[in-house]
Amino acid sequence: xxxxxxxxxxxxxxxxxxxxxxLTAPAAGTREPVEGDYTIRDFRYxxxxxxxxxxxxxxxxxxxxxxxxxxxxxxLIMHGTTGSGSGFLSERYAGVLFGExxxxxxxxxxxxxxxxxxxxxxxxxxxxxxxxxxxxxxDDMVRAQYRLLTEHLGVDHLRLVTGTSMGxxxxxxxxxxxxxxxxxxxxxxxxxxxxxxxxxxxxxMIIDAVKNDPGxxxxxxxxxxxxxxEAMYPxxxxxxxxxxxxxxxxxxxxxxxxxxxLVQRYSGxxxxxxxxxxxxxxxFYNPAPHLQNITAPLLAINSADDQVNPPxxxxxxxxxxxxxxxxxxxxxxxxxxxxxxxxxxPSVWGPYLARFLEQTAIPEEQNSRDASAxxxxxxxPWLEQAPAQYVARFETTEGLFRIAVKRELAPRGADRFxxxxxxxxxxxxxxxxxxPGFIAQFGVHGEPEIQRLWKSRYIEDDPVAASNxxxxxxxxxxxxxxxxxxxxINTVDNARLDSSGFAPFGEVVEGMDVVDRxxxxxxxxxxxxxxxxxxxxxxxGGSEYIxxxxxxxxxxxxxxxx
Length: 562
What we know:
Organism: Parahaliea maris
Number of domains: 3
Keywords: Hydrolase, Signal, Transferase
InterPro entries: AB_hydrolase_1, AB_hydrolase_fold, Cyclophilin-like_dom_sf, Cyclophilin-type_PPIase_dom, HAT_MetX-like
GO molecular function: homoserine O-acetyltransferase activity; hydrolase activity; peptidyl-prolyl cis-trans isomerase activity
GO biological process, one term: homoserine metabolic process
Number of helices: 15
Strand order of the largest sheet: 1-9-8-7-6-4-5-3-2
CATH topology of the largest domain: Rossmann fold
CATH architecture of the largest domain: 3-Layer(aba) Sandwich
């Protein structure tokens, strides 16, 4: 099945979920994060209280401004209930988005990770005010973030607003509260409706489990009340993934042991007041009456195994039509999804983000490379000989990898690959054949006319001078002298291909972990190999067909020579 897509007229939770995944150190290769605080002296809450509010934040990168002085590259990313901005610095998130050549490369974007009111290192009930803390709302959170950005960080415009779970809900609020402040919005794991039904019931269970405990003492407890542990049971249900829990705990004993471990782990990291305030902050949340005021393009992404926002409610599809430039996607359940926690796995939904960034690109981001040579296969660029050694840099929706080429290994193949990369052939091309334990292959052009021109522009074979070892790169072919544009990367040792004439011309020297993560659940169904004869629809339908039928396929955002 395919992800379900709905379009408008124009076309705990995060911290708990992150805790369900392996803990890692901050991602290698990301720009060094900078932390700071900004104290708003006169913040007025929705409940009428006025006082000092500390907003903690983390930034990566540097803001850039256009000729008018407006910031063009700022991205606001907001965490979920009980989480903090630091949660986005993990390898599974920052390691896929913020590093060199990645979709939100911090050398190109100014990333702002905020700790919302009541969370992380921002002002929160647990700091001594206990239950005297203001009864903050999501509207309070957004106004505080706006003041942090404008008054302290000097950000007068956002390229993208996004967030997970609660952060996704805050994205909707941002959209109608400050409609001219951003170029695009991408809420993850959220719905643009009032928190009601089972969702509110579960939140009320969490709150009541704490507050009904005599040890809570109206919020002025000396030690964490026992009710905090009881609150973990509905919370675990909210963030659970039935498929993954079944796989991880297939017996009664394993299930009960895992439950106890989760309860102990979660309750040990919580504060009772912080928890109850955080879950009650959504009590007035309801973007539905304001959706027509969201003028920026908006892409909402949910997953079908999300127990917080179950797809059978059809609420996202029902309301996205009221967003003038709104579109929604519900990802199918796969071995890679993690229920509500899918929101923190850009390795899954990265292709959607890449397409959305391209669709909403501002002038500074647009590709200025002249690709006219692609329509003139007889022109001089296609006669250029490659240097003896060179490196090709591939930015993909999964991250960056580099291929080092030695012309002596396969001269004709090295020359053709050099020409294709230099003239922009692979920009936007899908990595359509990913077979785990075998290869990752690409080279079918996204524009049918260009694909037609190049499909049979064959080069003669090279003798096989190097083996098809893991990481080596060679041209695909259907027989003698049929190499054209499609190449593959060996993800395991495939020496058996040597005798069939597949001649490697280079190898991946950086980013093999990225190649290993390329989306492979479509397998041979997404066109398969050249010999399989199943690539006709890809060739005639181009990127539009692939995006529609195989939307989670990773693709090459940009390829160039270094």
